[in-house]
Design a protein that fits this description.
mainly alpha; 7 helices; 0% strand
Length: 180
């Protein structure tokens, strides 16, 4: 600056600094938006899977479809077997809903209150012996593939948290995320 006059080179330096800060802020914003977009995309994929599987199970609940399923698997479709198959599909739909709910929570898309309210609804459903027996059978299949989900459902069954669930809650309180 000479005699109170700002030189063009000084203006250029200030403009360059402002431009650099603006670019940095813009990149941070874009990064946040990409992360949120990925989270929502994962949720949409999960919901699509849930919807597709639920539609298949709903279709199999029709008595004729259940009978065809039983016959196709070498059985004789008695009224009792058809009703068992229909109940099995109902249980599958309930567990798929729980899995979708859990996934949305894991992605941070549900408020704590919303997740708590839904969990209590699921807890009351899992007190029913048929759904509970269905879960225990499915649990053996899912334990290695989905340990966090299994820990969540187990905590609903017992009314208490499992050691794994305790670890999850500790990680969440510390802000540790397992998202990829």
């Amino acid at each position: 600056m000479r005699g109170g006059i700002v030189l063009p080179s000084e203006i250029a330096s200030i403009a360059s600094a402002v431009s650099g800060v603006t670019a940095t802020v813009s990149l941070i914003y874009v990064g946040i938006q990409i992360r949120l977009s990925m989270r929502h995309t994962r949720a949409q994929i999960q919901q699509g899977t849930t919807a597709r599987t639920t539609n298949i199970l709903l279709g199999q609940m029709n008595a004729e479809a259940a009978a065809i399923w039983i016959e196709g698997n070498g059985g004789t479709p008695t009224a009792e077997l058809v009703r068992e198959r229909q109940f099995y599909c109902q249980c599958g739909i309930a567990m798929i809903a729980m899995e979708d709910y859990f996934s949305q929570h894991e992605l941070g898309l549900l408020s704590a209150e919303h997740f708590s309210r839904g969990s209590e609804t699921f807890r009351s459903r899992l007190r029913e012996p048929g759904l509970r027996a269905y879960w225990m059978k499915q649990r053996d299949i899912l334990a290695k593939a989905a340990p966090r989900y299994c820990a969540y459902i187990d905590s609903l069954c017992t009314g208490e948290t499992t050691p794994f669930q305790d670890r999850i809650e500790t990680e969440q309180s510390l802000g540790i995320s397992h998202e990829k």
